[in-house]
Amino acid sequence: MAQIKDINKFRMDFTKIFHSKVVPLLQNLDKERIETKRTAITVSIIVYILVFIFCFFAVGASTASEDLMITLMFTLIVGFIPALCVYKYFKKNFERGLKLAVMPCLMQAFGNFRWMPDFVVFDEEIKMSKLYTSFDESKTDDNFIGSYKNVPIRISEKELFYIIRDSKGRRHKHVEFKGVFISIEIPKNFTGHTIVREKGLINLGPYKEVKLEDPEFSKMFYVSSTDQIEARYLLTTAFMQRYKNIQKAFSARTISCSFLANKLLLAIPSNRDLFSLGDLNKPVGDTRQFTVFLNEIISIFELIEELKVYQNTGL
Questions:
Q1: What sign has the CA pseudo-torsion 37, 43, 49, 52?
Q2: Which of 101, 206, 235, 295 is deepest in the core (most CB within 10 A)?
Q3: pLDDT tens-digit profile of 230-283?
């Protein structure tokens, strides 16, 4: 009952703050949205035309006349890529400005949680966890920091990239991970390092595999640890069931985590743009986008409730 009560209070506080404090701010921002959309479309069209002209003449000059139709189709398709990037650039800038204006108010509904545009889960922490180690660069979008039931939590929407250079030395960026990292400080210190990953055809964990009692969990996840006894203490039957529930709740193809020092780091892949606000095609006061945002934040709190990491008696 406590969980339902807490989450219902978040919803009520969010609704109250949205109508009393956020709606007045949004009234002045809709004109900016319309102007930004107009500019984004205009610049995107100009970029598309310029790319089309350049590609058509560059490729068409060395192409036989009978292949001009193929060249035309090629340039039509290629032109969309930079045009789309330009549009997304304007959209993201508007969304960032909107969040800077309304987030301080919205986050009042969630106690001491704060939204930040800067890193809160750092690359070094991710590499130390050994969940993802191949990436060379990262990009962050939305970040939150605060505590829930006295448990310090950091949430970071991130993309991790690794770089490959071709024979001419040109950089090619590839995505290793896109989704959310959740770092939770637990009121206990781990002596070892335990990692839970999705099980595949080939399982090469950095440490010795841990054999667990739950056959279903063992089929789904590969567990390795520097401390076999501690790993079994952490991965109780209750925790393993909660962990499987999280994957279902987030509709994630997989989920991974690391227990290191006094932190539990969860990595949840997602191809969606999470915590998104400021759609250029909808009025800024459209309540549906704020409802989605509310549900995404609450899902994190439900995750904490599911894992019960605020309890001192074990996971």
A1: negative
A2: 235
A3: 998 888 888 888 787 776 666 677 889 999 988 999 999 988 888 888 888 888
Q: In terms of residues, how long is the chain?
A: 315
Q: What is the pTM of this model?
A: 0.81
Question: What sign for the dihedral angle of Cα 205, 211, 213, 216?
Answer: positive
* pLDDT of 172: 86
Query: Which tokens hold the place of 264?
Result: 């539990």
In which residue are the tokens 């109250």 written?
A: 16
- Nearest in space to 187 (alpha carbons), one of 112, 266, 264, 262: 262
Cβ-contact 173, 161 below 8 angstroms = yes
d(CA 252, CA 110) in angstroms, rounded, equals 25
Name the phi and psi angles at 173, rounded to 5.
-95, 130
Q: How far apart are CA 102 and CA 27, in angstroms?
A: 12
Question: How many whole angstroms separate alpha carbon 252 and alpha carbon 272?
Answer: 11
Structure tokens at 17: 């703050």
Identify the H or E element spanning 295: helix 287-307
Work out whether the CA dihedral 173, 176, 177, 181 comes out positive or negative. negative
**Residue 202, φ and ψ in degrees, nearest 5:** -120, 125
Contact status, residue 107 vs residue 297, Cβ threshold 8 Å:
no
